[in-house]
Design goal:
The protein is mainly α. It has one domain. Helices cover 68% and strands 0% of the residues. The longest helix has 50 residues. It is elongated, with a radius of gyration of 27 Å.
């Protein structure tokens, strides 16, 4: 073998090793993402149920590590009326 062949084989071997590591890391990431999404869904369902049971966002924020604002987005107060925001272009023309 000439030195070019040995060098090329060394690069290919290193590339195969890196490719294997990248594939393994990608599979690990996909499993972690799936586990996160399952846990996130469970937490969201619990927050919505707790809010419906009358537990406030401050308590849930303290217990979960989320902010009150995130709790309010995930589990809004079921008794609160939702305000419709009208964009200026959606407003009817003013009568004069």
């Amino acid at each position: 073998m000439d030195s070019g062949t040995v060098f090329a084989h060394g690069i290919m071997s290193g590339m195969e090793e890196v490719a294997t590591e990248i594939r393994a890391a990608a599979r690990k990431r996909a499993r972690a993402k799936e586990a996160f999404e399952r846990a996130d869904g469970e937490l969201r369902a619990l927050l919505v149920q707790a809010r419906a049971d009358g537990i406030g966002p401050s308590d849930m924020a303290r217990w979960s590590g989320l902010t009150r604002e995130w709790i309010a987005k995930i589990a809004p107060d079921p008794g609160r009326r939702v305000r419709k925001v009208v964009a200026p272009e959606d407003e009817p023309p003013a009568e004069s």
